[in-house]
Amino acid sequence: MSPWIVTLIVLAVVVVAVGWYFSAYNGFVRLRNLVAESWQQVDVELQRRHDLVPNLVSTVAQAADFERTTLDAVTDARTHATRARRDVTDVAQVAAAENSLSAALGRLTALAEAYPQLQSIRNYEALQRELTDTEDRIAASRRLYNANVRALNTRIESVPANAIASIHSVARADYFEITGPEVRSVVDVTTLFGRGDTRR
């Protein structure tokens, strides 16, 4: 084989290798950006949820004899969850704080069933719709975020792309997991305020 053919082959291999390298690196950049962008959407929906909690607490508090300890627990959990989102970059810690908020709201829901007078509060239907929409938004944004995390983590583990990930210290991302049943109990405010008069 003539030297110039060997040279061309070597150059072709180098070009392909360099092209693959940059393609693989740019793929990681794109996936990391998708994870970051989808987390921002999760954060927006969590903020929306946190903004609704004071409305929920103040509405339920209109039942004059409602147990104050439960309302305070919800408020404290909301404060902790808000602080976790603002100060902590660990997704698992944010999820733990959100699960604590869900648990507190779940206890509020269970206790509020003993207060049928809450169904007479005028704004409960609007609150129900907002909470339902918010929880659905959180679920949708969480699914998108976790899908992007799965794509990134799978890419990091794949051969030979894992070599590029190692060179550039591309780290695995954490999934965002919220306990399902407790979250959904927050949404079901028909049990919180009573079912109301369906004849309207």
SSE blueprint and pairings:
Layout: H1 3-60, H2 68-87, H3 91-112, H4 124-157, H5 161-167, H6 180-187, H7 189-193
Helix pairs in contact: 1-2, 1-4, 2-3, 3-6, 4-6
Explain this structure.
The chain crosses the membrane at residues 6-24. Pfam families: LemA (PF04011). Keywords: Membrane, Transmembrane, Transmembrane helix. Helix 1 (3-60) runs antiparallel to helix 2, helix 2 runs antiparallel to helix 3 and helix 3 packs across helix 6. Residues 180-200 have low confidence and may be disordered. Helix content is 77%, strand content 0%. It has 200 residues and is an all-alpha fold. It has helices at residues 3-60, 68-87, 91-112, 124-157, 161-167, 180-187, 189-193. The protein has one domain (3-193): Up-down Bundle (de novo design (two linked rop proteins)), CATH 1.20.1440. The chain contains 7 helices and no strands.
